[in-house]
Request: fold
Amino acid sequence: MERMDYIARDVTPRLEEQLARGKSVILFGPRQTGKTTLVARLSADLSISLVTPEVRQRYERAPEQLAAEIAALPSRRRRLPPLVALDEVQRVPALLDVAQDAIDRKAARFVLTGSSARKLRRGGNVNLLPGRLVTLRLDPLSLRERSEPNLRSLLLYGSLPGIRADRTNADRETDLRSYVETYLEEEIRAEALVRNVGTFARFLELAGLESGNIVSFRGISQELGVAHTTVAGFYEILEDCLVAERVDPLSRSRTRKKLTKSSRYLIFDLGVRRLCANEGTRPHRDRLGQLFEQFVGLELIRQSRFQIPETRVRFWRDPDGPEVDWIVERRAELRPIEVKWTDTPAARDARHLETFLGEYREAARGFIVCRTPRPARISDRVMAVPWQELETVLA
Reply:
């Protein structure tokens, strides 16, 4: 298999639209999702990567150097200010003050990229440029961005662009392992986010194993021998470093008093999840079904970021009764989704959906996402759709 060519990303039109309006953008995304490649195609007037130590140290010593370099850009006549790209800006947060001044004076527009929101959010007096930056997110490849017919491969090796481009599964395995080890080294040890990296490494394995489940901080704390507040802090690190997606439950109900109120956490990429969990490449059928459920949840989250009006992904669970894997919430509308590892969906697969539809007036229809080769009507209000056509669920 040849290395893949550049893949057009869903976020690109929105990024270009904001820049054409004269706005500045901060593009968040986990490592190796393609932020640097995307920004390189914008032809910025000044492009600076803060990944390289000598470049980073130069701006750490003298952040004002950036202002001088912007002032030196050619002053040719143009409709918009020059475009400045700063890659991995969280490595030198002081540059945000320089960016604010340049934006306020209309001396430059910025595209800032970051793979960790933690330093920007928790760095003391860090300037987050309120009202000046449009925030966008770049995720691993979505279904719309790739042509991958092999569902099993997606469940095992994930959707990071560089991993999908590898020639063999052996290469993918090697690169995924390197990704996890690099994350531990550079994001955790180098930034001193935790005191005991060994404990965090063990936590990361448990987080991979528990991905998609309702999380018990106390249960994991007993496994690790640390306080449950420490576990909560570890999950916060995963969120801030864009490695985990938190999914909150739908807990309002007129009839049920015991709906789950704890959250689920999904590791952002299934290949990374598997390496974190130290799982092999031959999961049993039940595990494939669990991974398929996570895959659909991640796809819904990614696609919901581009929905207008704002769309949120939740889940619904009564410990004593029914549960629905995913709920898409858009304004006053609820859309329940069940995920089934089957190619012959039947009425029995829709029973919890029917219960939900009967209890929530905001829900008009439900979906079963499965391996059926084509859509199939299960009942008046429930449709089964192929996983490849997941986008229709959000239409």
Summary: Residues 154 and 270 are 8 Å apart (CA to CA). The radius of gyration is 22 Å. DSSP finds 15 helices and 13 strands in the chain. The chain has a mean pLDDT of 90.
